[in-house]
Amino acid sequence: MVEVKPKVLHSVKFVHPEEAIRDSLEGKVFLKFIVNLDGSVSDVRVLRGAEVFHQAAIDAVYQFRYKPAEHNGKPVAVWIPRAIRFRLPTE
Predict the structure, then answer these.
(1) Which CATH number fits domain 7-86: 2.40.40.10, 3.30.2420.10, 3.30.200.20, 1.10.10.10?
(2) What kind and span of H or E run contains 19?
(3) Which pTM does this prediction carry?
């Protein structure tokens, strides 16, 4: 338990894999990862979702930066879950 949950400070767009675009695939990937004391992300793990999207989701999440969680007024590292939806690009 933490008093203040991590907050996204910087995110990036998820890149729809070329193979998924070619095959007209959409889907969700469920991840969990650690938000470290400095707000960086580490230890990204795929929980479930179509394999074609795994690496794109992992690559993007590693670029996120957070305001870290806090407990008793001090930053703490925490595991957080995240669902990422991949939708085909529209023109």
Answers:
(1) 3.30.2420.10
(2) helix 18-22
(3) 0.89
Cα angle for residues 37, 38, 44 (degrees, 5° grid): 75
One-letter identity of residue 33: F
pLDDT digits (tens, 9 = 90+) for 1-29: 789 999 999 999 999 999 999 999 999 99
Beta strands per DSSP E along 1-91: 7-10, 27-35, 41-49, 65-67, 69-71, 74-76, 78-86
Look up residue 65 and give its DSSP letter: E
